[in-house]
């Protein structure tokens, strides 16, 4: 007690944690790679973003329910004792899963989850505290992007696995593994593309609402508006033109739906060896096939529109996603951050 | 300012050279910080200026939140805004924002770990600080339920969690009620024994209580940097104001009012003492005791009052602007 009285001010130092600072140094000397990793600011931010901000049970549950709702209803609607002409799971469920889950729900979930990651911190002012810590702006972006990737991958893999497990219980489908792999590969493209778009917009805007709006607009135009207008553009000819508007003005270059499902065809070709006629009915809506009808026999024939190779479309999509990410990174790095 | 800049730059907690910030909005240019040069050594350094003087812009450039348009700044020899410089600083922004869904304890642990402090030690340090700031009872409550005062305390604790060498506080008492203000000032004074602190403020009475040195900024330019005592001395000696207290101040006021060397004299309503301005200090100091004896009065006190930093600040800013300002 006497010593404490003599050293009144030093006791205050220890109250504020000076003694523990010495312990840090001692522990750091003892530590190895794992200790370094667990004390790296980027890892700490990753942990906080993933487990405190994203992995909330209601958020994960709602996301998974939204992802599987459409396909699950389709499976449950199979009447007992029915026999399909096509027994392949991808032929039966590919349309619902790739369109409902991966073109609508998954991008919307990724947009809603990723938009606040940077924008919300900028708006609330917590970004100012964050950047006053010894972590680079690039580190903040990469960390949050990785956390988003983990979240997206988890809800995707759980949803896909659930559907892959439940579907054969209702009907003895074939090609279950093919369905899983094709859709997993497709989902990775969807995830990378949309989370990069949404994340880069999150870096550009200070309001979460604005960061959500742009990616949402892309989703609506690509998967709702163009679904109505694309067939028109593919069957309408201007003047004496021998090719439809879609080809004449080379609209396919800017058609995100075309590129995404062109890549999807690439995965089907690699995994299943070719696209079934059943899938062609669906894929022609994305400009990948031209449909011709013989009105005498009422037979449909599909001609593949190979404006781009699947690999070309894949590179095109990756380039846009990477380009947007660099733009977001560059603007965030240059951005003035204040309250 | 620094004779041998490159050799001594590490001795300074803050060193700036032609530090400039220009905001561009369309074709408009707003010069928030206009090529300022100032240094800070150890101790508590106040950064004074009216609203819009460029205090927050300067601080935000120092921590790397906003880009530097021109010039450089170094914090303990490390370039301002770099990761290395940020390792040594603690920062409390004006109107700090928090991760409101975290509890006070979780928030402090998170920030400690962002400074590479292992989890168990971070927890111990966080608990020590919560105890120091009297927040132990609220440690598990979410920050969104905290009062403004509690938030300011947790903000201060967050700035201290990694034992920084330099603590930067941007208007730490703004938006707080007088009681909490006093508490925060007390905490800052306690902390100042352990580390150097750079405080921006426009509340002069508080700066006077906390700081050893001050830098006054107005319209983006530094007006002066000196110790608080020197600044006050420099200005009080130039005002030639004296205070006299006798057993009958009314009588003595009527006696001195007619004198040639007196330019102005009045009785202060609060203190009930005579305040006198003179144009001849030597003559004034000689004559006053004589007059007291002559009129058979009792002299209780006769002194030159020390100006408060507030008076000095107002005078400096008024001189700088050439007109009065409303603070």
How is the topology of this model organized?
The complex is a heterodimer of chains A (339) and B (327).
Chain A: H1 2-6, H2 8-15, H3 18-30, H4 33-38, H5 41-54, H6 57-76, H7 89-124, H8 126-131, H9 137-170, H10 176-204, H11 208-235, H12 245-248, H13 256-272, H14 277-283, E1 289-294, E2 299-304, H15 310-334
Chain B: H1 5-8, E1 14-25, E2 28-36, E3 39-40, E4 44-48, H2 55-63, E5 70-75, E6 78-79, H3 83-87, E7 89-92, H4 104-114, H5 119-132, H6 148-160, E8 166-170, H7 178-191, E9 196-201, H8 204-210, E10 213-218, E11 221-227, H9 228-236, E12 241-246, H10 249-256, E13 262-267, E14 274-278, H11 281-294, E15 299-303, H12 309-321
Helix pairs in contact in B: 4-5
- Please tell me the overall pLDDT of chain A: 86
| Strand content range of chain B | 25-35%
Shape, principal axes of CA atoms of chain A? globular
Task: Let me know the average pLDDT of chain B.
Answer: 86
The number of E-state strands of chain A comes to 2
What would you report as the Rg of chain B, rounded to the nearest angstrom? 24 Å
Largest sheet geometry of chain B: 6 strands, mixed
H-E string of chain A: HHHHHHHHHHHHHHEEH
Low-confidence sequence ranges of chain B: 323-327
Helix percent of chain A reads over 70%
Biggest interface in this structure? A-B, 41 and 47 residues
Describe this structure in words.
- The complex is a heterodimer of chains A (339) and B (327).
- With 339 residues, chain A is mainly α.
- Chain A has 15 helices and 2 strands.
- Chain B has 12 helices and 15 strands.
- With 327 residues, chain B is an alpha/beta fold.
- In chain B, helix 4 (104-114) packs across helix 5 (119-132).
- Classes of the chains: A mainly alpha (339), B alpha/beta (327).
């Amino acid at each position: 007690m006497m010593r404490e009285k003599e050293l009144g001010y030093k006791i205050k130092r220890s109250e504020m944690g000076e003694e523990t600072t010495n312990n840090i140094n001692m522990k750091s000397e003892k530590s190895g790679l794992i200790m370094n990793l667990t004390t790296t600011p980027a890892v700490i931010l990753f942990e906080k973003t993933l487990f405190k901000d994203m992995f909330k049970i209601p958020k994960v549950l709602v996301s998974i329910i939204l992802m599987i709702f459409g396909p699950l209803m389709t499976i449950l609607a199979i009447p007992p004792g029915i026999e399909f002409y096509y027994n392949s799971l991808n032929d039966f469920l590919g349309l619902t899963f790739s369109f409902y889950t991966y073109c609508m729900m998954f991008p919307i979930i990724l947009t809603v989850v990723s938009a606040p990651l940077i924008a919300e911190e900028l708006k609330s002012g917590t970004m100012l505290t964050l950047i006053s810590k010894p972590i680079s702006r690039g580190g903040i972006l990469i960390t949050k992007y990785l956390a988003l990737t983990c979240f997206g991958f988890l809800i995707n893999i759980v949803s896909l696995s659930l559907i892959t497990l439940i579907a054969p219980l209702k009907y003895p489908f074939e090609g279950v593994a093919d369905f899983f792999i094709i859709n997993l590969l497709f989902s990775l493209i969807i995830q990378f593309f949309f989370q990069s778009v949404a994340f880069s917009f999150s870096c550009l805007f200070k309001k979460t609402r604005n960061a959500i709006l742009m990616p949402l607009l892309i989703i609506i135009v690509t998967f709702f508006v163009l679904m109505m207008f694309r067939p028109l553009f593919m069957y309408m000819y201007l003047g004496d033109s021998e090719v439809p508007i879609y080809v004449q003005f080379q609209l396919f270059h800017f058609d995100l739906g075309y590129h995404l499902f062109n890549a999807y065809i690439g995965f089907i070709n690699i995994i299943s060896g070719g696209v079934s006629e059943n899938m062609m009915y669906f894929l022609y809506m994305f400009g990948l096939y031209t449909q011709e009808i013989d009105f005498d026999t009422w037979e449909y024939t599909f001609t593949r529109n190979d404006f781009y190779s699947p690999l070309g479309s894949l590179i095109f999509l990756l380039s846009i996603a990477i380009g947007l990410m660099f733009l977001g990174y560059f603007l965030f790095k240059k951005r003035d951050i204040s309250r | 300012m620094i004779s041998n800049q490159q050799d001594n730059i590490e001795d300074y907690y803050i060193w700036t050279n032609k530090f400039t910030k220009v905001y561009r909005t369309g074709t408009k240019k707003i010069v928030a910080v206009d090529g300022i040069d100032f240094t800070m050594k150890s101790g508590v350094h106040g950064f004074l200026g009216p609203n819009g003087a460029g205090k927050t812009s300067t601080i935000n450039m120092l921590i790397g939140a906003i880009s530097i348009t021109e010039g450089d700044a170094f914090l303990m020899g490390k370039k301002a805004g770099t990761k290395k410089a940020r390792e040594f600083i603690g920062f409390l922004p004006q109107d700090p924002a928090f991760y409101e869904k975290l509890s006070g304890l979780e928030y402090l642990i998170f920030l400690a770990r962002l400074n590479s402090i292992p989890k168990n030690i971070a927890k111990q340090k966080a608990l020590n600080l919560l105890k120091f700031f009297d927040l132990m009872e609220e440690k598990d409550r979410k920050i969104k339920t905290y009062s403004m005062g509690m938030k300011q305390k947790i903000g201060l604790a967050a700035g201290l969690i990694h034992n920084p060498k330099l603590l930067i506080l941007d208007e730490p008492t703004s938006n707080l009620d007088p009681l909490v203000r006093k508490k925060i000032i007390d905490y800052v004074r306690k902390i100042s024994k352990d580390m150097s602190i750079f405080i921006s403020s426009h509340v002069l009475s508080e700066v006077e209580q906390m700081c050893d040195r001050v830098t006054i900024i107005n319209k983006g330019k530094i007006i002066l940097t000196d110790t608080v005592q020197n600044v006050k001395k420099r200005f009080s000696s130039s005002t030639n104001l004296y205070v006299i207290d006798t057993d009958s101040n009314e009588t003595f006021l009527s006696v001195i009012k007619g004198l040639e060397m007196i330019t102005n004299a009045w009785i202060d309503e609060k203190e009930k003492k005579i305040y006198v301005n003179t144009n001849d200090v030597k003559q004034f100091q000689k004559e006053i005791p004589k007059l007291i004896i002559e009129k058979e009065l009792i002299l209780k006190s006769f002194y030159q009052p020390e100006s408060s930093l507030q008076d000095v600040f107002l005078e400096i800013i008024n001189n700088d602007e050439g007109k009065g300002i409303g603070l």
